[in-house]
Write a structure and sequence with these properties.
This protein is an alpha+beta fold. It has two domains: about 10-195, DNA ligase/mRNA capping enzyme (D-amino Acid Aminotransferase, Chain A, domain 1, 2-Layer Sandwich); about 200-310, Beta Barrel (OB fold (Dihydrolipoamide Acetyltransferase, E2P)). The chain contains five helices and 20 strands.
């Protein structure tokens, strides 16, 4: 049977981690949500938005090598490491590739790891109606862990796990009820996420330069309910290394325009160079200021996201 893509279950944001024997906590990985569909004949890798990513990750197409199943749908996060920590910038280098030669080269140069945390379908039957505890047991039985495939560990002490995440500077924690069913297309309090900051996809609408013509900041914006491109703050190179920052500067140099692209006037306007709003990024910040800009934003990496999808009402 053909397995049609589904919209994965999403956690809601919380400011206080739930506690009790009915809850487990897992690391919130800074990567790309990806579901694996294997019908016994062929494999498809589909992201949260329903876009296929099978070509980008050819090393995960042989499901029988890492899962004991005649057919299966696995849910997880595709990550790549920079040093000893997950890096959104690194995994997007893989996720954004389209040319076969580049993809084959990247398989070895940027190793991807699929962190599996749930199973929706197994051997011809949907298991979404089973409690999470049973689905976790099933995963332990059928998954064959390796350097590329990992079963996401579960912990009973969410507060301790979150403390470790803060110490390491990772993204956060997801808490899940052990009795929770998997609600396809759902988003509710049975799964809750506590993050170190807020994540956002934004569009580059301008840049500034320091002496010597070196780019030092990106001016970012979102589209509001009326379709206006609104300035929300600026950020530096963040988690991009020098090579990636220079490459971005070259891309931006080809997109400059004379007129301001933002509907409102940015705070950081002196010496600003405006650009066509075509390049998107992922940024993390602490909170919104009363003036509608991001407080302490940090650039996470480039994003393979249509600019028009970067709206003030987005949820990620």
């Amino acid at each position: 049977m053909e397995l049609k893509p589904v919209v994965p279950f999403e956690p809601i944001r919380t400011e206080v981690l739930p506690a009790g024997p009915e809850w487990i906590a897992q690391v919130k990985w800074d990567g790309v949500r990806l579901l694996t569909y294997y019908d016994g004949n062929g494999t498809r890798l589909i992201n949260r938005k329903g876009n296929e990513r099978s070509r980008q990750y050819p090393e995960f197409m042989d499901v029988s090598s890492y899962c004991r199943a005649e057919s299966v749908i696995l849910d997880g996060e595709m990550i790549a490491l920079a040093g000893d920590r997950p890096s959104f910038h690194e995994i997007m280098k893989r996720d954004s590739l389209r040319r076969e030669t580049e993809i084959r080269f990247a398989v070895k140069q940027i190793p991807a790891i699929h962190m599996i945390f749930d199973v929706l379908f197994y051997n011809g039957e949907w298991v979404t109606g089973r409690p999470l505890a049973e689905r976790q047991e099933l995963l332990q039985e059928i998954l064959i862990p390796s350097a590329q495939i990992q079963l996401v560990p579960s912990y009973t002490d969410g507060e301790r796990l979150f403390t470790v995440m803060k110490e390491r500077g990772w993204e956060g924690v997801v808490s899940k009820r052990l009795d929770s069913l998997y609600a396809v297309g759902g988003k509710d309090g049975r799964w809750q996420k506590l993050k170190l900051g807020y994540d956002l996809y934004a569009v580059i609408g301008g840049v500034t330069y320091r002496e010597g013509g070196v780019m030092n900041a990106l001016l970012l914006g979102l589209y509001d309910e009326e379709g206006r491109f609104v300035y929300i703050g600026h950020t530096g190179s963040g988690k991009l290394n020098q090579e990636a920052w220079r490459s971005l500067a070259q891309q931006i140099s080809a997109l400059t325009v004379r007129e301001r692209t933002f509907h409102n006037i940015p705070q950081r306007i002196k010496g600003a160079v405006w650009t066509r709003p075509l390049l998107t990024v992922k940024v993390q910040f602490m909170e919104w200021t009363p003036g509608g800009t991001m407080r302490h934003p940090v650039l996470q990496g480039m994003a393979d996201m249509p600019p028009e999808s970067c709206t003030v009402t987005q949820s990620i």
